[in-house]
Amino acid sequence: xxxxxxxxxxxxxxxxxxxxxxxxxxxxxxxxxxxxxxxxxxxxxxxxxxxxxxxxxxxxxxxxxxxxxxxxxxxxxxxxxxxxxxxxxxxxxxxxxxxxxxxxxxxxxxxxxxxxxxxxxxxxxxxxxxxxxxxxxxxxxxxxxxxxxxxxxxxxxxxxxxxxxxxxxxxxxxxxxxxxx
Amino acid sequence: xxxxxxxxxxxxxxxxxxxxxxxxxxxxxxxxxxxxxxxxxxxxxxxxxxxxxxxxxxxxxxxxxxxxxxxxxxxxxxxxxxxxxxxxxxxxxxxxxxxxxxxxxxxxxxxxxxxxxxxxxxxxxxxxxxxxxxxxxxxxxxxxxxxxxxxxxxxxxxxxxxxxxxxxxxxxxxxxxxxxxxxxxxxxxxxxxxxxxxxxxxxxxxxxxxxxxxxxxxxxxxxxxxxxxxxxxxxxxxxxxxxxxxxxxxxxxxxxxxxxxxxxxxxxxxxxxxxxxxxxxxxxxxxxxxxxxxxxxxxxxxxxxxxxxxxxxxxxxxxxxxxxxxxxxxxxxxxxxxxxxxxxxxxxxxxxxxxxxxxxxxxxxxxxxxxxxxxxxxxxxxxxxxxxxxxxxxxxxxxxxxxxxxxxxxxxxxxxxxxxxxxxxxxxxxxxxxxxxxxxxxxxxxxxxxxxxxxxxxxxxxxxxxxxxxxxxxxxxxxxxxxxxxxxxxxxxxxxxxxxxxxxxxxxxxxxxxxxxxxxxxxxxxxxxxxxxxxxxxxxxxxxxxxxxxxxxxxxxxxxxxxxxxxxxxxxxxxxxxxxxxxxxxxxxxxxxxxxxxxxxxxxxxxxxxxxxxxxxxxxxxxxxxxxxxxxxxxxxxxxxxxxxxxxxxxxxxxxxxxxxxxxxxxxxxxxxxxx
Lengths: 181, 676
Prior knowledge:
In chain A, a hairpin with a 2-residue loop joins strand 10 and strand 11. In chain A, strands 1-2-8-11-10-9 form a 6-stranded antiparallel sheet, covered by helices on one side. A 5-stranded antiparallel sheet of chain A has the order 4-5-6-3-7, covered by helices on one side. Chain A folds into 2 domains: 16-27 and 100-179, 2-Layer Sandwich (Gyrase A, domain 2), CATH 3.30.1360.120; 30-97, 2-Layer Sandwich (Alpha-Beta Plaits), CATH 3.30.70. Chain A contains 3 helices and 11 strands, in the order βββαβββββαβββα. Chain A is α+β, with helices and mostly antiparallel strands and 181 residues long. Chain B is an alpha+beta fold and 676 residues long. Chain B folds into 6 domains: 3-99, FAD/NAD(P)-binding domain (3-Layer(bba) Sandwich); 103-186, no CATH class; 197-258, Orthogonal Bundle (Arc Repressor Mutant, subunit A); 289-344 and 440-532, Gyrase A, domain 2; 348-435, Aminomethyltransferase beta-barrel domains (Alpha-Beta Plaits); 578-676, Elongation Factor Tu (Ef-tu), domain 3 (Beta Barrel), CATH 2.40.30.110. Helix content of chain B is 23%, strand content 25%. In chain B, a hairpin with a 2-residue loop joins strand 13 and strand 14 (309-312). Chain B is elongated. The chains are: A alpha+beta (181), B alpha+beta (676).
């Protein structure tokens, strides 16, 4: 019998450019939510750093770079994106496989802040939301994760099942901003 | 039209609001309107300035010491009458721009009950310094109207702000800028007969304010409510100060003594369309689609909305013209061969930590700390008020690791409940929760041939001793790490197979193809509903929020060995008294065979009216297995009334059916098929 074929949430969609913005589905690699047990945050932070070479992020912050990021993901929770988590971390935290649970896209371009301003209720302007800043917030009507990963590039994550709606809402906002230029 | 508005049309949008514009003003700033019009080539018929010493500030005619006292024209302005020292002059015009001077936008500075201060120089109110701690006001909001004055005040305020934070600011020179004096002389109303509009939004006139004073509504708050002045969406942006001045005049007080009402937003109206943004059509709400969505649509299944999710109603085949035909066939797959159904929409919550079992024992009525690893158990959850909140199976994957299943409808509610318990009620418990609903694509494989089907797909043999009813554990599916649960919502020998969502589409297609080769196939929501009604399994049609555990015959699941949420309240007298409506099964026994959900139950010889109501029907299905309708519902003392014949009356649809009450488990009450 044939092996199971994997599908991405947006089914391998080609990057889309509208106006000055480009929307691309990305493969973040393995996703693992890491929730430190009581009193373990400090020890976990040290073990995390030595295992994965990046700092345990403070609330509203993301660390790491392309290929290996640690994104604050809510109260007592960080999403490790990229490598498989070091098994030693099990001693300090509850770890849950999340690789297939999220639709991950990047949105980049000169007007990216204007596009997100239409959909995201937090202030994502460069003065307030710098590279490495992250928020669990809404993207139009969806609960998601918004992280600035470059001067004009954001990483957006919503539930996998809502991939179509994310695409719809982002395209609409991108078209709307492009039409007003 | 406001003089500033006329200017905005011209300068921002390139529109000339008239061909012969007149301006009526009491201040120099309004002359900018005339100047800009002239510069743009629009004819300015005259500027009528109430100040006797007003002079032209550009190439246009000024009539100083004059007032506009009337207008004429039908459907549009054609001419105005101007009262001058020498008499009345008529001027042809199709646009009259009016300006009584500027009012600073003090709304923000009036939070925390701050009241503004009257400034006679600009004939308006300015913020009172220090009314809001930490707020310094600068610029036009402070009554400094020229660009140069705004820049200077801004620089001073910025410096003061930085110094208050312990920072030292470098000296930054303020650039040279426009610095015309703002010359204004108050003109609150033009004397004379006829109505003089004051509040353009609420059509309040000068006379209305005077009448308020005559009737002794002399406080500003009373005048406002008497006339409705300032109560429209502009919140008195244009008319407040003028109204106060008129009231002061009518009551013989000064303006500062008269005082103000509370300035509050919205200062600038926001269109509802802007607030709604893209929330229409497909943008109205997120659509949640399962991994089998494309395959299901490809099979012609009508998709129905279940919360935000879309699920297949049934899978029609050639020759079928009604949904019932498809549904009956799909029920047959499960009862006689094997059916496949996407159940990924059920909530799945990963629960880990040393206190995971404690949490489960606390939120479920029954015990989970005693559950063996690699086993699942049915659980019932109550709200704090003792009513049933949700039900589902929870599996123990490891010593401190569980995965909870919720219903599709209550997935969010249960997650929120667990967050509340772990954050607010027992923050000392060392337990972590995370939704994994989206991580796993999960499929029910149900029917007598379910095991045979899976044997062909799984990497390891599926031997019945290792996988008894309610067993669960990790399993390989063509090299993919999955999870298998031997649980059943149909009453048949059944499994739920979960794989990471990326493989959901491929696995669903394989499962369906395999099932079809074995005389079965995919089944949708309709068949799923029939199967569970045949087994008397409840959904939120039954546990609708006013139902206790005792009402559904699950009183024995309320553990006496431990505390749990809702325990105390579930033993209130009202929960235990006689005549509570309890879950029963119903089947038709008279000439009419149809049962309908929503119908009510009445005894023989009693008129079917509210006062005689014995209960109601929550779920019905035509059962192809039994060849007639089956119903679930709630009837007073129903648990002890099996065998009684009552009348089901659907007032809405005009249907009356004789029904016999029975045990809600119609099919295989011993459960031999599930366990076998």
